[in-house]
Model the fold of this input.
Amino acid sequence: DGKIAEVAEQNQLVASHPEEDVFDAQGQYVMPGNICAHTHFYGAYSRGMAIPGKPAADFPEILEKLWWPLDKSLSYDDIRYSALVCLADAIRHGTTTLIDHHASPNAIDGSLDVIAQAVEQAGLRADLCYEVTDRDGQEKAMAGIKENARFIQRVQQAGRSKLSAHFGLHASLTLSDETLEACRKELPSDGFGFHIHVAEHPVDEYDAMAKSGTHVVDRLQKFGILGPRSIAVHAVHIDAREVSLLAQSQTWVTHQPRSNMNNAVGLPAVEAMLRAGIRVGLGNDGFSNAMWEDWKAAYLGHKLLHRDPRRMSATDVAQMAIYNNAALARQSFGLEKLGEIAPGAEADLIFVEYHPYTELTPDNLPWHMIFGFHESMISGTMVAGQFLMKDRKLLTLDLEDISEHTIELSRKAWERFQKRSVG
Done:
C-alpha cells in the first residue's frame, strides 16, 4: 500500500518473500526522496525570457517588470504545462514532494485543480495554494480567497492522498487589513495554515510600518496568520523581535538561497533562527527542482556573506533539507512517516549512482552530499512504491511531448507578457 513493509539484509528479504518482484539496484545508494518546501511552478515560463527596458535595479523592480506581468499572462493551458515541466524536472532530479505557491490573476477559478491534475498524472506529492493579493483589485482578491477555500475543502473531503493544501497569500506589502481579515475568516480552524512571503526585501518591512506602525511579522501575528501550520517564506529582513515571534508561534520558515542570491536581497539569519528554535526548511522558489543545488548554495552563500568558512555547517543544511522538510511534509499531508527508510514509512525513494573515493559514514554524509552528489547521478525515483522514473526513463510523463507543447505555449505567453510590459 505504498509503504515500506520491512527493512533487512538482502538475502533475508529474498528468502522471506520469494514471490515478490526484485529490483536490482546494482550497488546504488537508496535514499528518501528530496522535498522542496517552497516553489512556484508557474515560474517555469521565465527561463530565458527577455525583460523590456532597463534591467531591474532591485527586487521591487523585478516584481514589477517580470513576475507581475508574467503571472497576468498565464492561461489555464499555461498553468497545466508549466506544472508538468516542473514535475518532470522534479522526478528527474529526485524530488518527490513539493510545496507550491501559485498565481495567475486572469485564470484564478479552478487553477489549483489544473495543477492538481498534473500532479496526479505525474505521481508526485504536492501541497498547493493560490496567492491572494490586492494588487489586482478587490474582485480578484476575493476570487483568490475563494479558490484557496474551495481547494482546501476538496483536500478535506478527499482525505489522505498525495495532494495537500495551504492558504496562499502573496506578501504583507500587497495585502490590506481587510483582505488579511477576510483570509483569516476563511481558513478552517484545524489542519491548515497560511503560506506567505515575508520580508524578502526591506520594502515589505517599510510597507508594514506605514500600514500598521509595526513590522511584518508583528502585523501578521495581529491578524492570526502565524502558527504551527503556517509557512513564512524567506524572512531575510526580520529583526530579533520577529525571530522571537516566529519561534513562539511555531511558524515554519523556508530558506531559498539560490533565489535570494539571484534577486540580490541578501540571506536570512538561518543559523540564528535554528538556534532560536524556528523550524527552517529549504525550498527553491521556482528554480530547478534539483534540491542538492540549494544545499550547495546555502552552504557556500552564508560563508561568503560572512566571510567566514566556519559559518553554515553542512549539518545545519541537512537539518533544514532532510529533517525539517520531512517534518513539514508529514504535517502537511497528515503522514506518520515520510523522508526516512524504515518500516511503515512512505516508500518515496531515489536511487543514486554515487561511487565515493573517500570513506562515507553517517557523520560525513552531509559533506559528501554537498561536494560529491549531483542530480545527474539519480537513476530512479519512486513515490508510494511506484516507480516514476526507472533507469533514467520517465514512466508517468512524456517529457518530449510536454516540452513541445510548452515551447509553443510559452511563445504566446511571452507575446502577452511583452504587450503588458510595453503597456
Observations:
- The two ends are 54 Å apart (CA to CA).
- The chain is about 45% helix and 15% strand.
- The mean pLDDT is 96.
